[in-house]
Design a protein that fits this description.
Layout lengths: L5 E3 L5 E3 L3 H15 L8 H7 L4 H11 L4 H13 L6 H13 L6 H14 L4 H14 L2 H11 L9 H11 L3 H14 L4 H13 L3 H11 L8 H17 L4 H12 L10 H17 L7 H11 L3 H16 L3 H6 L1 H14 L3 H8 L11 H5 L4 H16 L2
Antiparallel strand pairs: 1-2
Helix pairs in contact: 1-2, 2-3, 3-4, 3-5, 5-6, 6-7, 7-8, 8-9, 9-10, 9-11, 10-11, 11-12, 11-13, 12-13, 13-14, 13-15, 14-15, 15-16, 16-17, 16-19, 17-19, 19-20
Family: Belongs to the TTC38 family.
Keywords: Repeat, TPR repeat
Protein name: Tetratricopeptide repeat protein 38
Length: about 400
């Protein structure tokens, strides 16, 4: 029961605070995370109402880590100072985030701690979201699927859950199941941007480019409240569908100018999130690649390609130094990433031959080859080629 300084967050779990506005701000933050909203800073309002609340402080520390590290450290310290009086739910969330943002973290341990929260508190979909993002960067869609499947019985029919189910399914190549999950998510909430994104992935994978563009452009009025990343990333997918459907390049550039780069005109835009999708689209347009790269690697290529060789070399050197400070396990997992960064630098400087030599014939950046390589020497290759050609000719020309 509420009382004695305990209230409940939206999942129904206890939090030590006497402030209803503090809980309201935490719930608003949870909604912003799940909806990929651009007002995640609302978690700071929770601190204004109860600066001693452990949950508010640890969530704020996680939010602030990349934008204000000093204040993030202050929030983390405050959470630690009041941890003894926190509820069990708060203590587990604190443990998982505190380790996640630590410099010496082991990704496997971080994932175990998030799984521990979900075993005790399966309705906490924001903890699930953090865990899935971690799985994404670990390249483990199987674990991401396992986690969402673990909490599915307790969240049947819950808003935002099915987009979170759809994404690891499509990463695992289970396109029919992914499409079904995404559509169920949209039946619950047609403005669920993660379900929209997942369905676009499926349509794009199946070369249904015009259908994907029509679907996403129909959804686009609901994107105005999205974070810079999610808004520009959804438009990035629209641009790729135009590109892969052999539309005139002008259409791709119109999306870039009017919906991706233009995001920077907004006073609350997050530049790094925009650059990630903007440079990724330019790289895709130039090199005909289809992979999502981390911002640092994209920037190495962009700097080198624009003739700023010393800046690109400095960034590459910085990446190497950063990797050298990681623990041995993390260094091993980053070897391919560094080889990729060096190859992209070579490619950007015009030394394509050296780039190919760095990667070698067996390099696989994300544990799978592009579809063209997967189809090589398989009987369905010719069928896929013919289908793609027919779609290209009928859709956008």
């Amino acid at each position: 029961m509420e009382g004695d300084g305990v209230k409940f967050v939206r999942w129904g779990y206890e939090v030590r605070t006497s402030s209803e506005p503090c809980i309201s701000a935490i719930n608003s933050y949870y909604h912003q995370v799940m909806s990929y909203g651009r007002d995640r800073c609302v978690i700071l309002d929770a601190l204004d109402h109860d600066n001693n609340c452990v949950l508010a402080n640890i969530l704020a520390a996680h939010f602030l880590l990349s934008v204000d590290p000093f204040r993030a450290s202050s929030c983390l310290l405050s959470a630690k100072l009041h941890l003894e009086n926190a509820t069990f739910y708060e203590k587990l969330v604190f443990e998982s985030i505190n380790y996640l943002i630590s410099e010496e973290r082991d990704d496997d341990v971080a994932l175990q701690l998030h799984s521990k929260v979900l075993k005790e508190f399966p309705k906490d979909l924001v903890t699930l979201k953090r865990a899935q993002i971690l799985c994404f960067y670990m390249g483990r869609p199987d674990l991401s699927f396992s986690l969402v499947n673990q909490v599915l019985p307790q969240n049947e029919g819950e808003n935002y859950l099915y987009g979170m189910l759809a994404f690891p399914l499509l990463e695992l190549g289970k396109m029919r199941d992914a499409e079904e999950a995404a559509k169920r998510g949209l039946n619950i909430n047609e403005e669920d941007s993660w379900s929209q994104h997942a369905l676009c992935h499926v349509l794009q994978y199946e070369c249904r480019f015009k259908e994907a563009v029509n679907f996403m452009e129909k959804c686009s009025p609901s994107w105005s409240s999205l974070s810079s990343f999610m808004l520009t990333h959804n438009w990035w997918h629209v641009a790729l569908c135009y590109l892969e459907g052999s539309a005139p390049n002008q259409r791709v550039l119109e999306v870039y100018d009017n919906h991706i780069w233009k995001e920077l005109d907004k006073t609350d835009a997050h530049g790094a999130e925009v650059y990630l999708n903007a440079v990724g689209l330019l790289l895709r347009l130039y090199a005909n690649w289809y992979l999502e790269w981390h911002l640092d690697v994209l920037t190495v290529w962009a700097l080198a390609k624009s003739g700023k060789f010393s800046e690109a070399a400095d960034l590459l050197k910085g990446l190497k130094e950063r990797v050298s400070r990681m623990n041995i396990k993390k260094q091993q997992s980053m070897q391919r990433a560094m080889r990729l960064a060096e190859a992209v630098y070579a490619y950007g400087t015009g030394n394509d031959k050296h780039g190919v030599e760095l990667l070698g014939p067996d390099f696989d950046a994300m544990d799978y080859k592009e579809r063209a390589y997967k189809l090589a020497n398989r009987p369905e290759a010719e069928h896929a080629k013919a289908k793609a050609k027919a779609l290209e000719e009928s859709y956008f020309n």
